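Checklist before submission:
- one chain only
- standard amino acids only
- sequence pasted in full

Submission:
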Amino acid sequence: MVRTDLTIRDLMEEKPTSRWDVEYWNPKFQTMMGKISKTYSLKTLGDFISLITYGQVGKRVYDTKGDVDYIQTINIQTTGVNYEIKKARITSGSHNDPPRSRLQVGDLLLGNSGMGGLGKIAVFFEKVRKVNISQDIDILRFKDINRYFVAIYLKSEFGNKQIWIRSKGVGAPKISFDEVKAIKIPVLPDKIQKNIESEYKKMSVYHDKAMEAKRKDDEVEYKKSIETAEKMLKDLIAKTEAVIRGERKDVI
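Returned file contents:
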């Protein structure tokens, strides 16, 4: 049964960043958001985003001797960035390497389009590696909220479904900056956000071990480490969802 308790004022408050279509106002979406505990205030990502941009636009010119790694949505895997898939390098300072999209430690990466890329999430950790991105990836930087919590939230049922519901297009769905900013997010206590960060980083240790094993062609170690990372991530997402629903107090 479609909700009839939304007032014109409710609709108009949503309108600037959402759509009048049936999909957005689908009862399933409204029911999902209704599962969020009333304990937490509900804001939008736009309240916390200090910068949002996308990668290089135009012809891609790869350079095997280039000193900048170039990643695309295919490189964003469940547990983090995998440079071994479709390896690509570009020349520093070239049109493929605009300063605005050169990655910084702590950047949150969001796949912004495509059936296979939309909604992919990773936090960039590399302190030494120079990396730039394709136009199919957004960079999000935040203020007053923990990026690791945001990453896990966007991977959860609450965040991921919003990405897809808010995206536009049929064959190649895409989410705009305005739609990203409109994503609703509960504000968890700082302690819980820090614990999510701690657990995320523990998971990333195994992701890094898996990537190192991949570079050494050690498939046994790669499989062992990536499976551990995936299990830890799945568990963290489930615990975070339970906290958001008010079913548990923390993720640890």
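Reviewer check: The helical segments are 8-14, 27-34, 147-155, 157-166, 177-181, 190-215, 219-245.
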